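Quick note —
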Amino acid sequence: MFNKDRWKEILEVLTGNWFRTVLTAFGVFWGIFILIILLSAGKGLENGIMQDFGDIATNTMFMWSRATTKAYKGLPKGRSFLFKTEDVQAIRDKVPNLRFISPRNQLGGFGGANNVVRGLRTGAYNVYGDYPEIIKQDPMSIIDGRFINYSDINEKRKIAIIGEGVKNGLYDKGEDALGTYIKIQGVNFLVVGVYKKKSNDGDGEEGQKQIFVPFTSFSQAFNRGTDVGWMAITANDGTSITSIKNNIMGVVKENHKVHPDDQRAVGHFDLYEQFQRVQSLFGALRFVAYFVGILVLLSGVIGVSNIMLIVVKERTKEIGIRRALGEDPWSIKLQILMESIFLTIISGMAGITLGALFIYGINTLLDMNGPVDMFANPSVGLGVVIGALAILIISGLFAGFIPAQSAIKVRPIDALRTE
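Predicted structure written out below.
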C-alpha cells in the first residue's frame, strides 16, 4: 500500500484517459453532494420549526375550561365553569409523575386597551399572574433584577417583572427600570426584574412585551378570588404528559361535576404530542434523504465498477505479462482494488468539500439577510461525514472487487495471446 511505484502506476492508469475518469468520478461526487445537501436542507428546516417551540419545556400541556356539552348529575349542558386553586392541589395529590403545575391568570393583550401606565406613557401588554415555576416551563433570561419567588406569593407582594419590549415602551433609553412603579389597570406594581426571551423572530419583539406578577397579588388586585384562568402542567422526565393527561382532566371533571365522557368541556393543548409529531416528520425526511442520496451514490459506484472492468479488459496483456513474470495474484488484485478505492475516495471527498462550501454559502446568506421563517442554520454533523467516508471506502472495495477477481482469473498464456 505504501509502495511508491504502485501509486505511480495508479495515477498513470487514472490519468491515461482523464475524460473517462472524470465522468466516472462524477457519479460518486454527485451522490455524496446530493446526500449532504438533502441532509443539511432537512436539518435547516428542522431547526427552523424547532425554533417555534423556543426553549419551552416540551413535555408540557396547557389546560383551560370551556362550556360543557353533556348534562351530568342534574346539571345542564352548556354550563360554564372556571378552574379553582383547589384543583391545582387535587391534581398534585391524585396524579403522580408531575414536575410542575402552574396555575395562571391573564389580562390585557396586544392591540387592546392601554392597560399599563407609567407617568405620561401608556401601553397594551399581556399581564400574567404566575408562580415561580413558570420560568422553568417557559424559560427566559433575567437580564436585570430577579424573578418571582415564593415570598412574593405568600406575602402577595405587588411586584412585576417586565420584558425588554415593555421597558423600551415605558422608559427612556438607558433609564433604570428597577425600583420604579408601573400602574396596571389602576394598581401600582414595583418593577423588580427585566427579562429577555429567545424567539424565532430574532430578538422576539412580541415575546418581550409581557409582564409577570405573583399569582396571589394578581388575584387580589384584579378581583379574581380563587379563579384560575388556565394551567401549564409539565410531567417528569421519562413520563410523557400525553400518557397522563386524561388522568389530569379526569380530576378537574370530577371536581366540577363534568361528565367523564365530555371531551369538549376541558380544552387542552398537548405540546409533547405536537413535538413528537414534528420529530416523526423529520425522522421520515432524514430517511428519504438517506435513501435518495445512497441510491444516487450506488449508481455512481456501479459506474466505477463498470469502468474498472473496462480498464482490466484493456490491461489484459499487461496482467498476463506480470503473471508470467511471477507476480502474486493478490498483488494484482490489490492493485485493482486500490485504483477503485482511490477513485471513489477522491471523487467523494470532492463532493463533501463542495457540499460543505455550499452549506457555508447558504449560512452566510442567512446571516446577511436575517432569519428566515421555518429555516435556520442548515448543517451536517461530523458523524454524517465520517459515515460518508466509510461508505466510500466500502463502495470502493465493492466497485473494485469484481474487476479484481476478473483480472486474476485470466491465465497468463491466454492474456499474452490477447490483442
